[in-house]
Specification:
The structure is a homodimer of 328-residue chains. Chain A contains eleven helices and 14 strands. The first copy, chain A, has 328 residues and is of the alpha/beta class.
Chain lengths: 328, 328
Amino acid sequence: MKTRIGIYGYGNVARGVECAVKQSADMELVAVFTRRDPATVQILTPGVPVLPAERVGEYVEAIDVLMLCGGSATDLPVHTPQLARLFHVVDSFDTHKNIPTHFAAVDEAAKEGGKVAVISAGWDPGLFSLNRLVAGAVLSNGVDYTFWGKGISQGHSDAIRRVEGVLDARQYTIPIDSALEAVRSGETPELTTRQKHLRDCYVVAEEGADLERIREEIVTMKNYFDEYDTTVTFVTAEQLKAEHGGMPHGGFVIRSGKTGWEEEHKAVIEYRLQLDSNPEFTALALVACARACHRMAAEGQTGCKTMFDIPPAYLSPLDGAELRRLLL
Amino acid sequence: MKTRIGIYGYGNVARGVECAVKQSADMELVAVFTRRDPATVQILTPGVPVLPAERVGEYVEAIDVLMLCGGSATDLPVHTPQLARLFHVVDSFDTHKNIPTHFAAVDEAAKEGGKVAVISAGWDPGLFSLNRLVAGAVLSNGVDYTFWGKGISQGHSDAIRRVEGVLDARQYTIPIDSALEAVRSGETPELTTRQKHLRDCYVVAEEGADLERIREEIVTMKNYFDEYDTTVTFVTAEQLKAEHGGMPHGGFVIRSGKTGWEEEHKAVIEYRLQLDSNPEFTALALVACARACHRMAAEGQTGCKTMFDIPPAYLSPLDGAELRRLLL
């Protein structure tokens, strides 16, 4: 029997969920819920209804796992606790510092509703977190490094768009090779913010704008750019769309440490993602977590879970015997 | 309360377990059991008794998890089912094709004894398997690649030692950069055995031996070397010890696949280990599994488990709230 999936909130990650469900023989999409006028929302999957968000309650029997695809800033802190009373849910809440608060609110709601809620699924938080946990649990005497990119940072792109005279912008976060190599060598260097990442910006300016002033405002912007080496390239709107219209991302989680009675041996664990499409890959992780969520629910578990709590086998459509035979 | 660890069988991995326990504040070593004369076995940890294997039964109350450190060929197929009736156990059984049989025998024994037995822990099988599982569950439309090395292959070193006129040898398995780069690029090439790995051999020959005949016998050896590009370098016994006396290993698990409605985007997931000491790192993974084993046992679980079945949080000494705050 397939896992019946609903999508709540329809943006880039939701479109990725549609793609992921299409790739998964054990999943089917039942309905998409939106707070916009459903008539204006064009989804990818033929024959699946798009419904107003307030009708989601009619689907408690028809949906096994509801994928919450709103934003972390204001949507998910409300949606996830609310909907975890009614549905098994998966979200991609990614405001790291607020995860404990979000967990507590969702855990209470899910337990009251007798539901399983998987939060902060995706790749960071998500697969990167999982790798930090496992690497740290195994290589206990070591240091963690996370590098992001090459990839688009939405927050930094938005910050540039707020500069006067800027019409549009894309910002790439780029890990610096020499820092990566230093960590991979098995050393445990202390790296400054500037040594770890570059910021590479592509900016469309208003006609006649003072480009030097815009450049200066960007590279000195507090919290966003002032601690980095930042390059700014002005391009036309057409160039931006043609050459910087994708949503690539990725990065590295590396743990470097020592083994042996006298700490005489080095060990390095590296996990790397290279993604042409950040939202599509995030969605694939969410859908694997939906599979696990459905299984934990079938076992009678309730409450809030993260990828830390999911037995890895539950993520896979294969059964235990197949996994052992094929992958162990 | 600390997890009280016993070691059964005292070789390289067992010494690694001692090092790992020393690094783990939540673990303590209680006893080492050996089939040799205990008086001849010198362990690293002061004050811990070395006892004859047949006395292990006296320790059922004193040991929480018994680490089975025998070999996969003949020891573990006997030891693990036998001892899983008496103890929660962890082994590193690594004969891939026999894992299903081993699992079945251990599962029956552990369930009869009311114990938890974690088998095939380590890095391959173990962490590499875990990464194959998670990468495949997420990036469902993709292809897996595993590369080993640079590292010592014990089996290939032993095979060389059986050639007439050879006194000693070490064989390094080395992944070929061009193959790695092809996979990392997001393509899914079909790679032959010869394209993936080189075999680099260091050989100590008897005085007066026909070196060209030895070289020829090695590079043409069926199942071991004939499908690879193999280099043979003759060295003195002193050079072998000084320059090739370590036990480095490692490798890469890479999954390359497609995302998107029309499979229009590439994604690559890469996991890499670089280990100065293969047995010490293997032992660190075993000890993290011992922590998880003890927790699963405390919950009343029984039977055979692999790393596929362990909620990742159970591997870590940190509690759920700390893990979410620090690592998610």
